[in-house]
## 1
Amino acid sequence: MTRPWPPGAATGIGSLPGIDPVEAARLVFGELPDLPHVPELPDRGVGADMIGRTAALLVDLPTEIAASGWRITARPGRDLRRARDLLAWDVDALEAAGQGYTGAVKVQVTGPWTLATAIELASGHAVVSDPGAARDLADSLAEGVRGHVADIAGRLPGARVVVQVDEPAIDAVLGGRVPTPSGYGTVRSVAAGIVEQGLRTVLQAVPEGGRVVHCCANRVPFAVLRGAGADALSIDASTLTVGAYDEVGAAIDAGLALWLGVVPSSGTAPDSAAARAVIDELWADLGFAFEQRANVVVPTPACGLAGATPSYARATMKLVREVGASLLVDDS
């Protein structure tokens, strides 16, 4: 499969500090020219958070803010209008910054299972507690993602759209660790086959080759993500244990790309040599030929950069770009 992004590309996870979408879009296109993304700016408040942004995409499933978070409601209201407006401004900024752009461009959405843990039914229970409601949510999200991809493609006609589906809570769903409203119990675990199908429903709304699943959980359900049809897996290198190497290797053998978080989202950034060493050491342990790295690995920050300072965020994007370019040089 031909990947939408070139060998040696690097990208961000999504979120950045600040409140100006125009400035953020220019920054991303400047620092990550091979695989820019739509910046997420949660500092803007309600509707700019990852759940609100994705709720804005749902079709025929309106939501609103309740005391405990986002909740399904009978009709669209002020909260949903605000979320949709914020997303529209972000896409407008992307279009302005990307005029004439002809490469891959990435958008991010919250995955169906993480969304199902964060959005409530009218009863106050999470959507994930109701199998029928969870299916409806996945179907609604898939339709919304399909329209979002078409919108981006229409605004940047020379670009190939890549969609990163964020699933930080998917392991909790599989393991039965999603808390009930009382906090004293947990929602029953969802079978792997059902989780895989729900995720597949959303991924199939994305053009083949551009289906990326990001999971920053300590235990990544690699088999489920592969089975759902992911083309790339985005993970934090610091959480990757030796016990997962066989699954990572099997994913690469199956043709999946590996988006590897090699720079912390805050604190002290390593230099490019140290970040590159993380990739080289993993690659050596997996036993693949070093000349394959640039075709398979996309360096990223470990997670979103919303909690970083503006200077750190810029430095991090520059650093992962340098690491990506260095993979094109076979100096192993």
## 2
Amino acid sequence: MGQAQRLVGDRQAALHTLRQTIALGQRLGHYLPTLEALGYLALLLYQQGKLREAIRSCEQAACQFMDAHGHPLPVAGFIYVPLGMLYYEINDLPRAAYHLTTGIALCQQMGTVYATLAGQRTLLKLHAAQGELEAAWEVLAAARELAERSENQRRIRTVTAMRAELQLRQGHTAAAAATLSALPAAAAARSEQENLTSARLLLAQDQPQAAAALLQQIEGFARQQGREGSLIAIYLLQTLAQQALQQPEAARAYLEQALCLAAPEGYRRPFLDEGTAIVALLPRSQHLAPAFVAGLLEGFSKQAHGTPAAVASAARKQLLLEPLSETQRTILRLVADGLSNRNIAARLAITEGTTKWHLNQIYGKLSVGSRTQAVAQARQLNLI
């Protein structure tokens, strides 16, 4: 019922129903539906502007579902994926990468398509933010294969929007327009992700008036459903649209609305992901949230003066705060020797699924997206 309410846009009812599900599941000791409901609840809380509550709820649950060796149980994937998404929003990229790759691997073990796709979407954005475009395209390919195998049109459309987002990040406006051409024409018939991507396309096509009109529509949808977290991204795009329309006061008003919503809860990536177009506007509004804006400006400065490789390298070094286990080091050495997953599993007397799980753990800890990148990074850091 909570899922149905969420999908038809009755988010307040969905929040209430999912909280009831969690309470009932905890009382009865049924952890699979409890954690699945908590994962959905966390994403709804994020959209409602309650980022800190969402992170706290997931962190409390995640530590309860470990095996005897300290590894997360498969059901923890329902928590690790949203937790990775939430860490990304506060710009904690190392922890986001670890939880996303771990959560995706766990959800794949359970055959959970929705959570896997949600994690892949944020992992794609994370790779793109770190300048790792090859890894981002690899994630997109995996997501497309999963969505098409499910034969679910809503999931296939999610991947379509992901592809257009990545194309726009690389400046391929015509390709993004072709990708989005199959979407419904009416904003009400599209998802929030599809509408935001469509607005970004209009801005890239130098159609700020059309972008502003679309954003006004989806702002109305978000206000009606109380989605203050979603309003942050909408207001930032309106800032860019008004700036392009040479309406500086309107642009400043939208930016300040975004800051007032974002600063108390720590939503940072919506600003950083919009790039340098936002930078020049921030100092005039710094009085609203001095420390928060100073942090954003510092983040922009690092992105501007550090090469993608340097940003990625710094993130990887931070990831090593979560060290590789001895088994993971052994698997890395065998990967470097050219062994397949099946041969590694036979050599270590473990299943091929366990081998894949360890590899995804390794990818997360090193912030890489492939076997080749993992070996190269491990050698650079003298891990093998």
## 3
Amino acid sequence: MGRIYDISLGITAGGLHYPGNPEIRITPVQRIAEGASANVSRIDVGSHTLTHVDAQRHFDDAAPGVDAIPLQTLIGPAVVLAFDEAVRAVTADLLRAHDLQGAPRVLLRTRNSGFNTEATFHPDFTYLAPDGAEYLVEQGVQLVGTDYLSIEQFRSGHHRTHHTLLGHGVVIVEGLALAGVPPGRYDLVCLPLKLVGLDGAPARAVLIEGSPPWTSE
């Protein structure tokens, strides 16, 4: 096994959260220093906190929740695509410039990776354009990941990127920590919490390099 990249953002009290979503609160419940026999904490977070997976139920009440996502979709070959600092929207034309042959999982490394560890929210983050989402669906991609809290343009009003991907069963992973990860091919392991019937869940995600050559899925 080659190098393992931890591509998950750390969850800390008061950390980065999407406007309108729950803030991150971590509260001590039991503390050894205060006479308890063990340390225990209460964690209050939203289902779309930092590194997380969007389920189809995020935009469809009748759709499956995050616990129903097949594990084989969340684990396997992935390609990391790097985009220039000047890119504000990842469009179909920009994606066509990259080799997606045999890439069932696509992770987008953008300028967002330079500020996604900051507690201050950046509304001008780089996003996946709706036509980019359509292109990835056409290519048969099963999972798309991005390096900020949303794959959609901030306050787009239409949510076309989400609807296009989730509507075709494409899993969305948001809030990836891709700074320092070279573009290229890896194996991805991304496991959201098994929160039954929920619209999404925080996840731990890693990339593994040096795996055996890809096989078609």
